[in-house]
Amino acid sequence: VTAAALGGNDSFRRQLTTGLDAWMGAIDSALTRDSNGHHGVSVGDADGDGLEDLYISQPAGLPNRLFRARGDGTFEDVTERAGVGVLDDTSQALFADVDNDGDQDLILSTSAGPVLFLNDGTGRFTRVADAFRFEKGLQGLPMSMAMADYDRDGFLDLYLCVYSFSYGAGEGKAGTPMPYHDARNGAPSVLFHNDGHGHFVETTHEAGLDVGNDRYHFAAAWADYDGDGWPDLLVANDFGRKNLYHNKGLRDGKVTFEDVAAKAGVEDYGAGMSAAWLDYDNDGRLDIYAGNMWSDSGRRVTAEATFMPDAPAEVRALYRRHARGNSLLRGRGDGTFEDVSERAGAEMGRWAWSSDALDFDSDGWEDLYVVNGMLTRESGPEDLDGFFWRQVVARSPLTRVTGTHYDDAWRAINQLLVRGSIASHQRNVLLRNDGQGGFDDVSGAVGLDLDQDGRSFAVFDYDGDGDPDVAVMAARSTPQLRLFRNDFKDRGAAVAVRLVGRISNRDAVGARVSVQTDALRRTKIVQAGSGFLSQHSKELLFGLGASRRVVEMTVEWPSGRKQVFSDVPLNHRLVIEEGGQPRAEPFRAGRVAPLDVAATEPVPPPSGSWLYEPFPAPDFSLPDLGGQERSLQALRGRPALVLFWATTATASRAALLALAQGREALTQAGVGSVAIALDGPEDLPRVRAAASGITTVPVVVASEEVGLSYAILNRHLFMNRQDLRLPTAYLLDAEGSVVKVYRDRVEVSEILRDVGRIDATPAERLARALPFEGTLYSPAGRRNYLPYGRELLDQGLEAPAIVAFERAAQASPSASTLYQLGTLLVKSRQPAKARAAFERALEMRPDLSEASNDLGTILAQGGDLPGAIEKFRAALATTPDYPDALNNLGYALILTGRPAEARGLYERALALQPDFPEALNNLGLILGREGDLERAGSYFREALDKRPDYGEAANNLALVLVARVQTGDAIRLLEGFLERHPEFENTYITLAKIYLRVQRVEDGRSVLERLLRRNPAHREAREILQHTQQ
Predict the structure, then answer these.
(1) Buried-most residue among 69, 90, 274, 835 (CB within 10 A)?
(2) Is 877 among the domain residues?
(3) What pLDDT shows up at residue 402?
(4) What is the CATH number of the domain that holds 112?
(5) Residues 269, 321: contact at Cβ < 8 Å?
(6) Are residues 253 and 345 in the same domain?
């Protein structure tokens, strides 16, 4: 009923019918983060009218939305009136009465940290500055939140899950999650105690929740699983084990927790992404349902004998478990849990996000709903799930090791996923509880098997008829939000219960309600935050199946008070205040809104996009069709319009004509212009034909370098790295920086209006760069020039790359940024600047082992071996198990005459990373110098097997073969190597010397001549060749 319920709102049509990839392609990348879609939906009564409203979390640059229920099945957007149009990147929202004043306040999990809005009682919210007080500050990206009164003081406290997103070693605190199956290098999550005076104060350490608090935390859920009256905490972690923190209650004046996951049997190795408590078997004991990852590729790859062959059997089993799917853990009632996932048929969830319970048919048994999928894109390569398991997961070291191919693999897949797909087109799953301990997949039959890259869902009784309806959030899809009304006609009896605390917290979060009927017993708990990024209604919906009467209802309040009620009518909604009697009203009958006749059509983002932060345009100098040179430099000093077009792009001719017809008006306004065709040189006649009659606008044909540089520019103006869509025009300021982008069309009247707005204050630039109004509470972001510079360098465009790197260091001079800048300067062969960047990084963060290692490499290459050794040792002091630093230190020690010490370092490096070709080669060098040619040769051969393009290993192996009088084998080895890798110049020299040694002078000369044809200036080749001619 999405269109019928929400389609009347202009904001829904204009914002939420468009998926995040489209939005990220229209908003300046300086203001956005990514389009992974980690944004949730929450349910709560914002204005106290008794109806559940919807709050939708959005990425940075798009305002969160509050939709108020009208009571007739429709919603109205009251975001602006309520004051909650937050533009900060928001993953989740929680409605909760944090001050116990009788209304629902709002907490947001934003990228800058949690934010509190207090409700004035009428649905208008005011942000509380400095409401959350950290001990050490936020060290990662906030994800899910869950609330409970953990110390039973009557006020709701908050647990904030914090996640570490990483793109490789040296790029942030955590680096890559390692080892993949049990990563312990995540950012710490945070427990906040509500002091009852408007502040949440961190008590993570005081409460003992810093134990095991080093994982990749995605989701949390509170419940008193052992019935001792104190709420316990379940945390679902990616890349490994879960935490179950048992609340030990008040002792010595404080409440503390103990992680009992191992002894309780709930470590549940997996890619934990959702946490939920339920009573699936109606035994009155709480069970756990955890969302993990089911992967067909993962199951297949991890089952192969070639998968991680050196890993112990128990570790390989854990990797298979990582691909098994969701977990259902049955509470035994003694504080331990039994894994019944496979027996119950509850694993199927695919790449599962929010995974939680609802009794959709009201038969009295909790069913399971799972929203699935990661990144579905129509463009880009095929689904990368198989690549992920074979090329990333399979490369994981068994322990935490820095600087491995695993780091490189993470970087590679993250780059591919900027535009690629993984876990794509995975439908949501609804598993129906058969009442006998098992589940059946009925997804297609009930209409909830969405193919939408889902992330979260909220359960509530939208139409007041007593059964659960569902709002599903899939921010990457169109529409982002869907509302499903439950019309199951053969449903059972039901009771709905709303609790109001008096001694307990006002929302009664943590209360346990049991309903005993003549047919069954149901148990549910009041929660605030569950699943992943989700908040269900705090009203408890009890499906009671064929029950004809309620025998008794028991309410166990968070305060410890217990009430039992016997006179409870079926098919009624009950409101119970702590200590009082239930107030009952019958469920509403009939449907309150029509079904959707047709889906709301997506509204594309605007075709023009202002940039918040001007982006320097790459220089160019090209001849126009008349032979006159045209350059970006000549356009500087005034605004300019640069149009990119091609004869193969349908709308290009119209854009070119529009620019030509408006050239006089642009000139009068002081605006220069040039049209750059992206056709190839062979299409010059077609370009001339398309531009015939156009004399007012200079038309040039882009060189390959200019076309590539602007294609890369366009990919980095916006977050999702889109291709340059033709026609596209860039409005430049007088400094030659892009300030606005026009796609698909050129309207001179619009451009003329925009020219007058180029000079603007930061506030004005921010307002025009965003498609909707709202409030940004954290500082607007600075553009990250590092990925831009890296791509320029990868494409051989070194000059603009260096400019980008230097801008990156100026904009964000963090240790991580400076380290990355240094690595890229090394790649561009600027060791002096690289050294300065590494030294600055180490000044800011002396324990950055990667920077110490890479600085040592530069020093060694410059001849400063003592300085290099010092830096390599510093890297190892911080990270002892660092194979690259061990190898580098070993090589420096060899050069300083200490081969025995070096040998031990190489052996340690290979113990950590057996497939390390450089360490294999260097150990072979030591063995060769010791005269052990047979073992030396085996190491050189293994290094070459691990890295077939390793020229140094090929040369060394050839020399061993010659020394063992196997010259023919050596020649065949090097000739074959050069045939495959002709760029390795030292191999020509080695081969020529071998030929000359066995008196095959003409063959030696031929090899040297081949090298000189490639590099006429090669000094050694010329000297050897000259010597052979004497």
Answers:
(1) 274
(2) no
(3) 76
(4) 2.130.10.10
(5) yes
(6) yes
Q: Which residues contact 148 (CB under 8 A, 6 or more apart)?
A: 156, 157, 159, 222, 231, 233, 509, 510, 528
Residue 1018 in contact with residue 1012, Cβ under 8 Å?
yes
Question: Residue 528 in contact with residue 558, Cβ under 8 Å?
Answer: no
Residue 689 lies in a domain: yes
Q: pLDDT class for 379, splitting at 50, 70, 90?
A: low
Side chain identity at residue 979, one-letter code: E
Q: Tell me the average pLDDT across 335-345.
A: 97
Instruction: Output the six-digit token pair for 842.
Output: 């180490």
Interior angle at CA 331, CA 328 and CA 336, nearest 5:
110
- Taking the C-alpha atoms of residue 398 and residue 1001, their distance in angstroms, rounded to an integer, is 51
Establish if 407 belongs to a structural domain: no
Length, in residues, of the chain: 1030
Q: How many domains, in total, are found in the chain?
A: 5
Is residue 483 within 8 Å of residue 6, measured between CB atoms?
yes
Distance CA 356, CA 96 (A): 20
What predicted TM-score, i.e. pTM, was given to this entire model?
0.88
The per-residue pLDDT for 962 is 96
Q: What value does the mean pLDDT take over residues 718-728?
A: 89
| Other beta carbons less than 10 A from residue 786's beta carbon | 22
Residues 354, 532 contacting (CB under 8 angstroms):
yes
Print the domain residue range for 558: 495-586
Pairing assessment for the beta strands 672-677 and 640-645 based on DSSP bridges: parallel
Residue 591's pLDDT is what? 62
The alpha carbons of the chain give a radius of gyration, in whole angstroms, of 33
Smallest CA-to-CA distance from 105 within 78, 136, 83 is with 83
Least confident of 14-18, 216-220, 804-808: 804-808
Token code pair at residue 783 = 């553009």
278 with 133, same domain: the answer is: yes
Same domain, 182 and 48: yes
Closest C-alpha among 91, 117, 314, 120 to residue 220: 91
Element (H, E) at 534: strand 534-535
What secondary structure letter does DSSP report for 1025? Answer: H
Directed axis angle between helix 917-929 and helix 899-912, to 10°? 150
Handedness of CA 515, 521, 525, 530 (dihedral sign): negative
What pLDDT does 167 receive?
A: 40
**CB-based contact 937:917 (threshold 8 Å):** no
Residue 905 is classified by DSSP as H
Q: How far apart are CA 954 and CA 970, in angstroms?
A: 9
Cα distances (Å, whole numbers) of residue 878 to 172, 676, 912, 997, 1028: 16, 52, 16, 48, 52
Q: Are 402 and 175 in contact (CB under 8 A)?
A: yes
Question: What angle do helix axes 748-755 and 652-661 make, rounded to 10 degrees?
Answer: 60
CATH assignment at residue 971: 1.25.40.10
- Of 690-704, 706-720, 779-793, the poorest mean pLDDT is in 779-793
